[in-house]
Amino acid sequence: MDYEAKGVTMGKSIEAAVLRQSGKPYVIECVTLDAPQEHEALVRIEACGICHMDIDGPSLCSLPAVFGHEGVGIVEAIGGKANVNVGDRVILGYGSCNRCPSCMQGHPFYCDKSWEVTFGGRRLDGSPTIWDSSDSPLHAAFFQQSSFATHAIVPDHCLVAMPADVPAEVGASITCGVMTGAGAILNVLDVKAGDTVLIVGAGAVGLGAIMTARKAGAGAILVADVRDGRLEMARELGATATFNPRMGAMHEWVMAQTSRGVGKLLETSGNAAAFESAIASLRTGGHMAYAILPSPMEEYALKPMPLFEKAARFEALSFGNSVPHDLYPKMLEWWQAGEFPVDRLISTFSFSDINQAMEQTRTGDVIKAVLLMEATDAQ
């Protein structure tokens, strides 16, 4: 079934939130979306979560650009052969080339082209997916979706089926950040029943990790964050002990809780002081995974000696080493069973209120902002 066979013409007019200058507001504009190529789908976006990678996007990508990478929606058309069908309800996973050895071995999180498919702004063949009203290509295909829009072009291998009875905002909330936290616990730190784990930072990544650690049966779940409201949420979701580093040295608190430090640690804050205190919180032979470095686009003076002294493992996360086709359905099953209350993290916003949602995400006033798409009076 080809694109035009479903009555969708080449150059579909859609609405997208375009960022033209860093530090300036998004403007919802009428833009032109390319037709899907073979093994691509046109997805009508129902909802899209906001992640800190969207906030950091202007430092990683050229402008003007269309961001957004936590979309869910309905397949409206396919380009030639595709592994999805028109009418399928889907979650949009992260991009991967689907051809390199890592992808072929079932490890798309280690894709050789990961940086290019995530931040390159075009398809891997170099073709653009979105043009503005002056027929200039925009930096798009963000995570191979750019879902701050009413529609997106997505490779079919990145699409994961979503049950019809799952609210769109719930599906959008489990991607990227929450998936990274859940994957860190299951796939990287391999938390088992009775284990002690320290989670630094109680944002979407950290709270996803807390819920997953509880599900895994962790014996003690220690959580540190500078926001008391986030710590209260962490306790409600499964943390057994919490600490605000404004009250003192985190590693001293950890040692008081454990006597020897923790064996499994997830650092999600990206704060330099917290990062170094996290390393000091490890026991000998411990394992620390981190979701972001302090000052990620600048130099950071990591001192390897403390890690060497403890013979500790130090590991960067890539999407929590998660395969969306495996982890998304699992998280949704947990949610449906009442064992993964991710809906408690969600604050919904109309698509037209994207600037408010972005600002409240940046300040931490909301944990997981989700945009609900609707027609707007685009400029």
Topology (SSEs and partners):
Elements: E1 12-18, E2 27-33, E3 40-49, H1 52-60, E4 71-78, E5 89-92, H2 101-104, H3 114-119, E6 130-131, E7 151-155, E8 159-161, H4 168-173, H5 177-188, E9 196-200, H6 204-216, E10 220-224, H7 228-237, E11 241-243, H8 250-258, E12 262-267, H9 272-280, E13 282-290, H10 305-309, E14 313-316, H11 324-336, E15 346-350, H12 354-363, E16 368-372
Parallel strand pairs: 9-10, 9-12, 10-11, 12-13, 13-14, 15-16
Antiparallel strand pairs: 1-2, 2-6, 3-4, 3-7, 3-16, 4-5, 5-8
Task: Provide structural commentary.
With 379 residues, the chain is an alpha/beta fold. The protein has two domains: 4-162 and 341-372, Alpha-Beta Complex (Quinone Oxidoreductase, Chain A, domain 1); 178-318, NAD(P)-binding Rossmann-like Domain (Rossmann fold, 3-Layer(aba) Sandwich). 28% of the residues lie in helices and 23% in strands. The chain has twelve helices and 16 strands. The strands form three sheets. Strands 3, 4, 5, 7, 8, 15 and 16 form a seven-stranded mixed sheet that branches. Strand 12, helix 9 and strand 13 form a beta-alpha-beta unit. The radius of gyration is 21 Å and the shape is globular. The two termini are 34 Å apart. The relative contact order is 0.15.
